[in-house]
């Protein structure tokens, strides 16, 4: 297992995060106690928090400036963005980011799995909550398996066959004569030497090309006998394909930041459904986000999050007045429309 050196917290970033939570008015008693302990732990903490308060008061007049209000409404009419990260920003920007862009947390530590070994074998690999695992297969191909994901491998003399049963995986395929085939949902992805990501959530599936090329072919589905039979599709770098689970495919462009970011603990979304964002955030957190109501789930948001921090995602939605907390306990945070 790989080990990482500890990262010392930045008081300014912690202060901005506590400031955002305090202003949300939704801090639990335990969080309030933790906040007070943090303030008392180091004089630098209290000083950083007081600077946040002073800076926000100075920004208050800017927020109510008519020109700023017009700009904000113009942006809102186009799209909503939440950037959850404040590293490298000045204090004033950090305070503003605390309300619209809460602080990033450390990514989950990746586990190193053993070589699968052998050329003729079958095996299954899975990851738990918040676990991103990296492994090298017996043919030299590399796999990064996202949290709460499962793959089954069957390597024989004629082909290398992998089934993504759940979740998401990145493949860097070693070039050799045997085809490398990944099956998920209603499709197979055939490659010889390339880099790509496959993602499966229930019946829906996606392929995103990073480098090289693949051929995507349909799998017959007894459950959907009337579904349209899709012709094979060739994908090259920068292209992708989604399957809605009903036999309908859509060609898309690969979002490289999103498709590669999760491997380093960053979850990036461009005008994604809040329901889908919550599903992916839940892969990394034992405290699950539950979306109550289709209206909120179907609302869209662009966001850059740190994997594993459901709390700051919730705080941002509340502060943006996109959602309110209906209930919470140690296992779940239930969100509804405001």
From TrEMBL:
Transmembrane segments: 81-105
One Pfam family matching this protein: FecR
Residue intervals of the FecR N-terminal domain: 14-54
The keyword Transmembrane helix is annotated on this UniProt entry: yes
GO molecular function: sigma factor antagonist activity
Top-level taxonomic group: Bacteria
Alphabetical list of InterPro entries matching this protein: FecR, FecR_N, Ferrdict_sens_TM
Keywords assigned: Membrane, Transmembrane, Transmembrane helix
Domain FecR protein: start-end pairs: 125-214
Protein name: FecR domain-containing protein
Protein species of origin: Novosphingobium flavum
């Amino acid at each position: 297992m790989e080990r990482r050196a500890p990262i010392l917290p930045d008081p300014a970033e912690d202060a901005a995060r506590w400031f955002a939570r305090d202003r949300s008015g939704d801090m639990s008693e335990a969080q309030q106690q933790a906040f007070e302990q943090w303030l008392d732990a180091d004089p630098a903490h209290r000083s950083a928090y007081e600077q946040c308060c002073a800076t926000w008061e100075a920004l208050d007049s800017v927020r109510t400036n008519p020109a700023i209000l017009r700009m904000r409404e113009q942006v809102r009419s186009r799209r909503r963005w939440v950037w959850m990260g404040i590293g490298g920003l000045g204090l004033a920007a950090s305070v503003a980011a605390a309300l619209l862009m809460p602080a990033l947390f450390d990514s989950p530590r990746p586990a190193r799995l053993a070589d699968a070994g052998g050329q003729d074998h079958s095996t299954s690999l899975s990851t738990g909550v918040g676990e991103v695992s990296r492994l090298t297969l017996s043919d030299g191909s590399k796999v990064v398996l996202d949290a709460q994901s499962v793959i089954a491998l069957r390597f024989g003399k004629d082909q290398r066959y992998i089934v993504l049963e759940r979740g998401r995986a990145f493949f860097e395929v070693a070039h050799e004569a045997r085809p490398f085939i990944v099956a998920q949902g209603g499709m197979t992805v055939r490659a010889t030497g390339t880099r790509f990501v496959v993602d499966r959530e229930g019946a829906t599936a996606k392929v995103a090309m990073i480098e090289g090329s693949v051929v995507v072919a349909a799998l017959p589905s007894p459950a959907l006998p009337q579904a349209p039979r899709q012709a094979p599709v060739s994908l090259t770098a920068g292209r992708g394909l989604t399957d809605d689970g009903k036999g309908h495919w859509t060609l898309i462009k690969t979002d490289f930041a999103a498709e590669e970011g999760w491997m380093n603990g960053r979850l990036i979304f461009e005008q994604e459904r809040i329901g889908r964002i919550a599903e992916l955030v839940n892969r990394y957190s034992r405290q699950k986000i539950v979306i109550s109501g289709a209206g909120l789930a179907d609302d869209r948001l662009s966001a850059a999050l740190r994997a594993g921090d459901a709390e700051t995602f919730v705080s941002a939605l509340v502060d943006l007045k996109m959602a309110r907390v209906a209930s919470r306990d140690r296992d779940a945070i239930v969100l509804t429309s405001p």
